[in-house]
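haha ok so turns out i had the wrong file open the whole time. this is the CORRECT one, sorry everyone. sequence first:
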Amino acid sequence: MPEPAAGAPALDETMLAMDVVDTIRHADRLVERELAGTDRQARLRERLREIYKSQGIEVADHVLDAGIAALEEQRFAYTPKGEGWRRSLAQAWATRGRWVRFALAGLGGIVVLWGVYHFTVVAPRQREAAAITRELQQDLPRALRAEHDRVLAGTQEAAVRADAARLLAEGEAAARAGNLAEARARRTALADLAARLAAAYSVRIVNRPGEPSAVWRVPAANPRARNYYLIVEAVDRDGRPVEVPVTSEEDGRTARVSRWGLRVPEAEFERVRRDKLADGIVDQPVIGQKAAGSLATTWTVQTTGGAILSW
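then structure:
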């Protein structure tokens, strides 16, 4: 057997140094305690000598020093190469009991959150979108056609029937384009037109104590002029008020009212004023008739049709 090379440690000393490293590595408390000071190597050497002496083994100082140095240099530590993913997989499998619980808990939380979001946000939006689609494709076209037919059934006036046809075409086009607001507006306009055609009422001068029957106004555009109005109301055959759309000529505002000021010539204003002053009542209060099937009112007085909503 060949002799060891000059300067190389003997095999038994190398093995002993490895044993020293292994002893230190498996003595965690010893390492933590003895390596904490500035003279840690000297104190660690003494402790190691005591450990080996208790086992009946004499270890030279240079062997202990070699073991300590080897531990600090990680000389005898095993580092796997080329199998990192396999080692990680093995560690994951070995610790599966711990991380699987966390994974399942996290997955459960995600499922709960998704369920809450779905039922509080996604599902209502889907129902709303489905309702809008159904309204645009089915409900509105059917309602538009029904209101259009009501108008045609209620009048023979060509102008009114043409207006109804225009509203129907505009409403159907808006529904096809997905314009919900415009389609609804045309349906409302057709319903209002049908209701106005069906209404029948009389227009009479207000003739009650303490309430004016006629007023005059100074227009803002011409302070030298006066505009004259009869205060009138629409009532059905039983005397109940009927609301009709009236547009003010002073500010252009339109409102549904049962009472308004109807503009008349000064002569008509004076006739009514003198009539009421004579005995406190207006002898012929009814001055207009609106028949079903027509939008026009037949007047028994001269009027421009202008109106005011306040006085």
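Confidence is low (pLDDT under 50) at residues 1-9.
again sry for the mixup
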